[in-house]
Amino acid sequence: MQSIVECILKEAYVLQKLTLCKVNLNDFKIINMLCEIIKSKEFLIYLDLSWAKLAPRHMVRIAAELKENYKLMRSLNLSYNSLAPEPFSKRDAEEKTENADQ
After folding, report:
1. CA-CA distances (angstroms) from residue 74 to 19, 39, 45, 57?
2. Which of 15, 29, 34, 90 has a C-alpha 20 to 30 A away from that of 72?
3. Cβ atoms 40, 17 nearer than 8 A
4. What is the topology classification, in CATH, of domain 13-101?
């Protein structure tokens, strides 16, 4: 999945609709690249991330990027992702450290 998101980010074409539903996006590297797509693709009007195994912290990161770079966004689908609190794990600590470096 990471290579697909990287390709979308690198291409210079106009992107209006992006659907990444029913795929596992539960990785902060992918979320950060997705936020770069939101930031760089100024004509993005439709984003579907349903059933993407997003955690609350991922949705907060995406929402923060949309708040700054919403431009023409008309539709955002985050349905069927969990809003339940997650247990703290070693991976969480690593992601927190990684995000602090950026």
Report:
1. 14, 15, 5, 22
2. 29
3. no
4. 3.80.10
pTM of the model: 0.73
pLDDT band at 71; cut points 50, 70, 90: confident
User: How many Å apart are CA 70 and CA 55, to the nearest integer?
Assistant: 21
Sign for the CA dihedral angle at 81, 83, 84, 85 comes to positive
The SS3 assignment for 32 reads helix
Helix axes 28-40, 90-101, angle to 10 degrees: 30
Q: Per-domain residue ranges for the chain? A: 13-101
First to last CA, the chain: 21
Phi, then psi, of 2 in degrees rounded to 5: -60, -40
Cα(48)–Cα(83) distance, integer angstroms: 17
